[in-house]
Write a structure and sequence with these properties.
alpha/beta; single chain; about 325 residues; eight-stranded parallel beta barrel
Length: about 325
């Protein structure tokens, strides 16, 4: 459990069946590694977020060639590490590659323990099979958990809710239940290839921690001119999420996220319906959720080597 005290302006929620109490808003790690952001600003964003009550830190082994983890690791020094619930993600599908990436993340983040490690970008129907192979990535994470390198295991994806459901099914067949699942949850998702409608009920039923991401779809939703940033964040917070993760590349955007947390009140269906009515037409083709309809957000599609080697029994039948 975290050693930090709660903050009056920040709601806190339980992370599924783990019992961990985390901030309803999580700080996204991708933006922290942007080249136009200086190291000092990224440290200021992270520490200001923590000082204002945000305890959930998001990151990934592949964000900005490792710069996001390096900057977060630097920001979490001087006593800040023990104030947060730290999460990162790995892309490796093989046991060997997953273990390598995890150890690299531990070094970058200047910690001997990551609270939550997630299999990143579950975008393909073959991903679950590779991960749950005897020599697959989940074996590496389970061993790392036994060794004290991590505490909880989850997975993420942004492409198709049916692939999420398949990942959960393959895990169940293997006798494994994830602690968390991360997915897009926003006012546009409700209308198109919806994680909210298809995956969220299953997670709630299993008491799996729900990590909502892309509440503003990297700002794309705002270009539809149908909703404000605060309305987007409030909509995602109103779902049965444990955490809503949002990226902050400036102090102004961090303040926006904090304002959304401070002003959030549970919304009735009468309040939700107008938001959905306003966004229905714009959301109908996926135009503002390009992570579902294009490959431009699929980092592993551009870097397949990150996934690691195929299982040996698959290599034996591959055409030579």
């Amino acid at each position: 459990m975290l050693k930090t005290t709660t903050h009056a302006d920040m709601p806190y929620r339980v992370l599924g069946r783990t019992g961990e109490r985390v901030s309803a808003i999580g700080l996204g790690g991708w933006h922290l590694g942007f080249t136009h952001i200086e190291d000092q600003l990224s440290t200021r964003i992270v520490r200001s977020a923590i000082d204002r009550g945000i305890t959930f830190m998001d990151n990934s082994w592949d964000y900005n060639e490792g710069r996001s983890e390096l900057r977060m690791g630097q920001a979490l020094r001087d006593g800040y590490r023990d104030k947060v619930f730290l999460m990162t993600k790995i892309d490796g599908r093989s046991k060997r590659e997953a273990a390598r990436q995890l150890d690299e993340s531990l070094r970058r983040l200047h910690t001997d323990r990551i609270d939550l490690v997630q299999h990143h970008e579950i975008l393909r129907y073959e991903d679950p099979h590779r991960i749950f192979d005897e020599e697959g990535a989940n074996a590496a994470l389970v061993e790392a958990r036994q060794a004290g390198k991590l505490r909880y295991i989850g997975f993420t994806g942004h492409k198709d809710p049916h692939i999420h459901l398949y990942m959960l099914e393959v895990a169940r067949r293997d006798g494994f239940i994830f602690d968390t699942v991360q997915m897009p949850l926003n006012v546009m998702d409700a209308h198109y290839r919806s994680f909210e409608k298809l995956v969220l009920p299953d997670l709630v039923k299993q008491q799996i921690g729900v990590l909502g991401m892309k509440p503003l779809a990297n700002g794309l939703i705002l270009k539809s001119r149908t909703v404000t940033a605060i309305e987007c964040l409030h909509y995602s917070l109103n779902l049965p999420t444990s955490v809503v993760i949002t990226g902050c590349d400036s102090m102004e955007i961090l303040e926006q996220a904090l304002q959304a947390a401070r002003t959030f009140r549970p919304m009735s269906q009468a309040e939700v319906r107008p938001l959905l009515a306003r966004t229905a037409k714009a959301a109908s083709t996926g135009e503002f959720e390009l992570f579902k309809t294009t490959s431009i957000f699929d980092a592993t599609a551009y870097h397949p080597r990150w996934l690691g080697e195929e299982p040996e029994h698959v290599q034996q039948v591959m055409p030579g």
